[in-house]
Design a protein that fits this description.
The chain is an alpha/beta fold. The chain has helices at about 15-25, 60-75, 125-130, 135-140; strands at about 5-10, 30-35, 50, 60, 80, 85-90, 95-100, 105-110, 115, 150-160, 170-175, 180-185, 195-200. It has four helices and 13 strands.
Length: about 230
């Protein structure tokens, strides 16, 4: 079993992780970044990125993360392809264990594990849909879009599909939270965009969390309660 030490350990390899690595490396802190399950984070499954400064035209998420990785390595970051499965924040230096069996220690720990898209929590969504985010402002400007307020989705209906045909969506069973009225809405597809849940299961019971699940930090700071 191997053991590696660095002044700064960064867990996570999304935009936040790579940014932290670049700045830490330029400060001569010799950071070590453990990439995690999905190196590059959610941008690796994102197509057009339109809100990143410096590009007049949309760029591809995977390409952007590839450039961030190259920059982080260029300035001196030690990028490791492993998944942190356990952390011990009661010892100094901090200790983390990887899925590979390796142990990583550091004087400072930067948590950049990101977040995951929330799902509706109904069984049929696993059959019929996949998540994709859209910009709400564009949505409301569309003349052919109908916004239904105070309503939840109880079920997605459709055909389960038989090879070679995939499952197909046919409609939604909706329920109004104010009146309790139920209705069926005929649709050909479903996109879920109900926010994100922080990927901080690794730190449950070890770091203070906010009511929404995100890690607590001191006011005007990124410091946790450890």
């Amino acid at each position: 079993m191997t053991s590696k030490h660095a002044p700064v350990l960064i867990i996570g390899s999304g935009p936040a992780g790579y940014t932290a690595a670049i700045y830490a490396a330029r400060a001569m802190l010799k950071p070590m970044l453990v990439a995690g399950l999905q190196q590059g984070g959610q941008l690796m499954i994102t197509t057009d990125v339109e809100n990143y400064p410096g590009f007049a035209d949309p760029i591809q998420g995977p390409w952007l993360m590839e450039q961030m990785l190259k920059q982080a390595e260029h300035v001196g970051t030690d990028v490791i392809n492993d998944i942190i499965t356990e952390v011990d924040l009661n010892v100094r230096p901090f200790r983390a264990k990887g899925d590979s069996g390796a142990t990583y220690t550091a004087d400072a720990l930067i948590i950049a594990t990101g977040a995951q898209a929330k799902w509706l929590g109904i069984p049929s969504e696993q059959t019929f849909i996949r998540a994709e985010r859209i910009l709400s402002e564009r949505l409301f400007k569309k003349d052919n879009v109908r916004v239904i307020w105070d309503t939840v989705v109880d079920e997605i209906t459709g055909q389960s599909g038989k090879m070679p045909l995939p499952p197909s969506v046919e409609g939604l069973k909706l329920r109004n939270l104010v009146t309790g009225q139920e209705m069926h809405l005929t649709v050909d597809g479903v996109f879920v965009a109900i926010g994100h849940a922080p990927a901080v299961e690794l730190f449950a019971g070890k770091l203070k969390q906010k009511p929404n699940g995100y890690l607590w930090t001191a006011p005007d700071s990124t410091c946790t309660d450890v």
